[in-house]
Amino acid sequence: MFGYVVRRLLTAIPTLFFIVTAAFFLIRVAPGGPFNLERPLEAKVMENLNRIYHLDEPLWRQYLYYLGNLLKGDFGPSFVYRDFSVGELFASGLPVSMQLGASALVLALIVGTTLGVVAALRQNRPADYGVVGFATLGITIPTFVIAPLLSLIFGVWLRWLPAGGWGDGALANKILPIITLALPQIAVVTRLTRGSMIEALRSHHIRTARAYGLSGWTVVVTHALRSAILPVVSYAGPAAAALLTGSVVVETIFGIPGVGRYFVQAALNRDYTLVMGTVIVIAIFIIVFNLIVDVLYALIDPRVRYG
Known about the structure:
Helix 5 (126-140) packs across helix 7 (171-201). The protein has a domain at 94-261 and 275-300: MetI-like fold (Orthogonal Bundle). By secondary structure, it is mainly α. It has 13 helices and no strands. The termini are close together.
């Protein structure tokens, strides 16, 4: 297993190199630039800005310059947020997004798995229909509808929770954003668990376990759920990467100072270094969580072995 992890980490290096290279040249091929404003800057000012940020040099030299800084851990200065570097923006926003994303993911896995198991054990009964209906509703309703509704109901009408804001990370301020992020994931996890659990309960080894006289709890939790959880583990990898890097809709509606807002703004404003930073962070999260998923596969399913 250790050798497999080392090999995967080594293969991640050329993968990241390819992603960085492709993103670097693609963002510069797009029309416009970081200093192209509705009201054009004076020619001298534009010349000075291009010189300061090395935009007046050939593209290959800019690429080598960026790679050199990246190897030192420097993502470069932001072209739009000129008082901050990309690293400083991530240092302040990424922990906030990770708190919300991790909490939403844990909530989604616990609630979604529980509902999926209940629905599978009560297949074609009212409980099953209710869970499937809830899951379908959670998938179809987008977060930009759920977030204002939760804020309006619990923040404005009932006044149980703050309608928005971060409040220095107070628990009350986190509840509504976490629920908003978790609801679609709960719906997906519920449907995945229900489908795989129904299939697992009908498998031969579950019939054998019941024939041996094992208790229903042991059969469901120890044997059936262990097989049924594999699709959920596969889904949790990319879902974790998406949640931990922030949601621009949720963070905008609730006024959360995470990194989600930077993703869209960087692309719209042609903030080259901020775009590159977000691409690299997302790529690293995806690579790491896919590796974690593969390791969990081997731990959960004894039939999976990595040579």
